Each structure stands twice: as structure tokens, then as C-alpha cells.
Amino acid sequence: MLPDLTDHAEQVSIRISKVSADSLSAATRNLIGNHPVIDLSVVSGDKVIPWNNPNAPVTVSIPYRPTAEELSNPDLIVVWYIDDKGNVVPVPNGRYDAATQTIVFQTTHFSIYAVTFVKKNFGDLQSVFWAKKAIDVMAARDVIQRTSMNSFSPADSIKRADFIALLVRALELKGTGKSAALFSDVQKTDYYYDELVTAKELGIATGYENDTFRPHSDISRQDMMVLTARALAVSGKQIKASGALNAYLDEASISSYAKDSASLLINFGVVTGKNARIAPNDTLTRAEAAVILYRIWKL
């Protein structure tokens, strides 16, 4: 955890301290309310030493008693990282652990962190009641975004590049940033560029034979399964077991390249099918994508 710091000091301490809300901006204070705010730091003498080590994730546990409203939907309890400018950045892996009555999250850098409760409202989820919780939880962490002020557009199809970006954000995947040339149809100015660089470096996004990724094409359910299975493997969450594809009426329509991934995700409970079918060639909707992300977040 501290390979470079011990060369500069005989003794260092890890400090966890409460932060007064008065030190935060008015806007941030209003967002956080009465929730706890903590400062994690590495200290040598009276000097705070910046710490950031992607190879040494630290698990932090904060005692916490949710309100009655929060207990009714504990997955909306969120951890925020507060940067030097006072901006809040959700930590996707942060969650409430009812068994220990703590907020638990992993981080690879020390800074100020806050607990909060985020409830976003969408006016177009009436037809996708089965996806509402997943959408709410992923939106609370800014893993998936709204399409307008009050809309989520759950029935819209989702693009290949967008789904890759969602996977990388949900699983908080990191690359070295030293990846070689990307796909020929992806530019550095594209909003999904950084996530796609990470996905290619980690072997999640492999593209097509002509060195393209087709980022703006709708993603099929079976391609979603392949990318999701690879992302889970990289994150260390994969298991060596398979689900029963023959339980689905359209098993034969799953392409050979996707069958292992489909089996894995069925075993995980990440994919459950549509009306007794796996529907591999259907395009993935935004609502379905949110459910997939929520299920892998819960693993």
C-alpha cells in the first residue's frame, strides 16, 4: 500500500477523522444534509501525504444508522468522493450493509468522503415497473444517466459504445492509460473514448476483423452477454459454472461465440430471459441495460 512513502519517513499514520460540514460549500452541504463526512489521509508528523495506489484498494467501513425512508430503499444510500474543488463524485461500489449496520466502500485514493441518499425521479417508467429499482439505483450513482430533465427513455435501444462505458463505470475498471491505437472508427474526442480505451486494454472490447468497433450500432443481447462476461472476468467476479441454456425455447438461435457467456450469466442470475426466451438477436434497451448493471453491482 505504501511502497513509496516509507522511503521518506520513518513512521506514517493512517488517519480517519470527521469533517465539519461548515468546511464544505453551501451547495454541497445542502446535498449531504446531516449525513456523515469523513477525511481519510496518510500523515507523516504534521504533514498530509497524498496517497493514490490503484494496486492497493482499501476497504472503508463507516458505522451508520439509516433513516426510516432510507431503510425502505437502502440501495439508494450512496458514497460520494468530494474533490479539492468541492465537486461530488459518486463511488459506485459504496453501499449499506444491513448485517453490520455500516456503509462500506473501496477506494484507491484517500480524500474526503460523504454518505448521502440520492433519489432521482423519472416520469416515464410506468411501463417498465420491473426495471424501476435498477434504474433508480444505477442513476443514483451516475452510472447511467437520464436522457432529459425528467425522462429516462427506457424503451430506447442502447449503443455498443454506451454499453461499454456503462460496464466500465459500474465495475470501476481501470487501465494503465498506455493502450496502443484504438479502433479505426473511434476518435479521441468521442465522449466514450476513455472507457473504450480501458475496455480494449483489458480485453473486454475486441472489435471486428476490420479494426472497427461500430460504436454507434445498437447492441444485441448476445453481444451484451459477451462483453458483460468478459468484464466480470476482469473484475474477478467470474465463477466456473454454467447455466442451463436448454431451459430457453430459442437456445439454438444463440451464436456459438456467445453460448459460454450466456451460460455464465444465466448461472449468475444476471440474465433471466424474456418470456422463456433468451432473445439473443434482440437489441438491448436502456431499461434492460440498467437491470443488467444492477445485477452485476449486486454480485
Describe the structure.
It is a single chain. By secondary structure, the chain is an alpha+beta fold. It is built from 8 helices and 9 strands. Strands 1, 2, 3, 5, 6 and 9 form a 6-stranded antiparallel sheet that branches. It has a 3-stranded antiparallel sheet with strand order 4-8-7, with no helix packed on it. A hairpin with a 2-residue loop joins strand 2 and strand 3.
Radius of gyration: 21 Å
N-end to C-end Cα span: 26 Å
Form type: globular
Order of helices and strands: EHEEEHEEEEEHHHHHH
Low-confidence spans: none
Structural class: alpha+beta
Helix content: 25-40%
By DSSP, the count of extended strands is: 9
SS summary, helix count: 8
Sheet-strand content, in percent, reads 15-25%
Largest beta-sheet characterization: 6 strands, antiparallel
Question: Which helices and strands, and how do they pair?
Answer:
Elements: E1 13-18, H1 26-32, E2 37-44, E3 47-49, E4 58-63, H2 68-72, E5 77-82, E6 88-91, E7 95-97, E8 102-107, E9 112-117, H3 132-140, H4 160-171, H5 193-201, H6 221-235, H7 256-268, H8 286-298
Antiparallel strand pairs: 1-2, 2-3, 2-9, 4-8, 5-6, 5-9, 7-8
Helix pairs in contact: 3-8, 4-5, 4-6, 4-8, 6-7
Question: Keywords for this structure?
Answer:
single chain; 299 residues; alpha+beta; 8 helices; six-stranded antiparallel sheet; 28% helix; three-stranded antiparallel sheet
Concise summary:
The strands form 2 sheets. Strands 1, 2, 3, 5, 6 and 9 form a 6-stranded antiparallel sheet that branches. Strands 4-8-7 form a 3-stranded antiparallel sheet, with no helix packed on it. By secondary structure, it is α+β, with helices and mostly antiparallel strands. It has helices at 26-32, 68-72, 132-140, 160-171, 193-201, 221-235, 256-268, 286-298, and strands at 13-18, 37-44, 47-49, 58-63, 77-82, 88-91, 95-97, 102-107, 112-117.
